[in-house]
Give the backbone structure.
Amino acid sequence: MFGKLVKLPRLQAWYGDDYQQYTYSNLTLTALPFTPSLLSLREKVSDFCQHRFNSVLANYYRDQHDSVGWHSDDEPELGEQPTIASLSFGAQRLFHLKHKVTGEKYKIPLQSGSLLVMSGPTQHYWQHAILKTRREQPMRINLTFRKIY
Ligand SMILES: O=C(O)CCC(=O)C(=O)O
Ligand SMILES: [Mn+2]
C-alpha cells in the first residue's frame, strides 16, 4: 500500500484450474490446485447457480480483528458483470453493502453454511466489506467461487 508492505488483516489462499494468476488489491496470487473438498463444494455451488466457476478465493478470518475492507470485485479478469458465489463457514459475520452513487447501505448476516450470490451489475454499483467488530468472534472461512477469463 503506497509503496509499503502491509499485512493483510486475514489469511488468504487462491485455488484454480491451471496455474491462473489473479491480481487482487495489488497482490498477484498464483493458483493452487483445487483440493477434493473444494472440488466437491464447487460442483454443488455450480449446480445451484447454473454457472461454471474455475477458481476460488479462500479467506480465513481468525477472529473479530480480521476483516476485508470496502471493495468491488471488478478486476478485468473477472469479465463484465461477474457471478460470484460466496460460501461461509464458522462465525456469523455481517456482510456490508454500500451503493457507490447513492450511499444506500445494507447489512446481511452470513450464517455458517450460507451461500450469497452476487451477479449482474452488483460489482459495478456496489462495494462490500466484512468489517472488524468489537464483539468477540471465533474463526470464519469464506470461499468466493469466481470465473477468471
Ligand atoms: O468474506 C466475505 O464474506 C467476503 C470476501 C470478499 O469480499 C472477497 O474475498 O472478495
Ligand atoms: Mn469481494
